[in-house]
Amino acid sequence: MHELILLVEDDERVCSANAAMLRRRNYLVREAGDVASAVAALAEGIVPDAAVIDILLPDGNGLDLIAELRKTADVPVLLLTGLAAPENVVDGLARGGDDYLTKPYDFSVFEARVKALLRRAGGVPRTARAGALSFDMVAGKATRGDASWAFPPRNSRSF
C-alpha cells in the first residue's frame, strides 16, 4: 500500500521537484500551492498519511493550516520552509509541526524525514477488513460482496 503525502508548497519548482522525488519512491502525492487548495483537498475527504507544509504561503500561514488539517486527522507534519531562525523553528514545532526542515536542503534528508514521520505515525493501513466487510477510510466506503455503503471519511488512525 502506498502512503499519501499532502504537499503544500507555493514555489512551483520546489513543489514539482519534491512531488517527483516522492512519486519515484512510490508515494502518492496530493499537491497544493496555497492554503485554500489544501483546505479544498481536505474538504474532499483527502486524509493524508503525512503532510509537508511550507509556512509562508500566498494566502495564509502554513502553521494555521496545521490546525485545520488536525480537525480532520492526526497527521504528522514536516514544515519545509526558508525560515531558519531558531525562534521560527521553536514556533513551528510549538504550533503543531512534528519536524522542521529549512531550505535549501538535500533530497536524501527530505526523504529520510518523510520516512521518519510515516514510521512514527505507525504506517496505519488506509483500508480495514472485518470478516467479509471491507472499509476504505479515505474513500469513505464500506463494501460487502456487491453491496457498498458510503460513510463520512474519518481519520484512518481512529479505527
Count of DSSP E strands?
11
| Strand neighbour order, sheet with most strands | 2-1-3-6-7
Task: Measure the end-to-end span.
Answer: 17 Å
Beta percentage is 25-35%
**Contiguous uncertain segments of 5+ residues:** 153-159
The assigned CATH architecture of the largest domain is 3-Layer(aba) Sandwich
State the shape: elongated
By CATH reckoning, the class of the largest domain would read Alpha Beta
Topology pattern, helix = H, strand = E:
EHEHEEEHEHEHEEEE
Output mean pLDDT.
87
Largest sheet: number of strands, sense, barrel closure? 5 strands, parallel
Query: Which fold does the CATH topology of the largest domain refer to?
Result: Rossmann fold
Global structural class:
alpha/beta
The CATH superfamily of the largest domain is known as: Response regulator
Proportion in helices: 25-40%
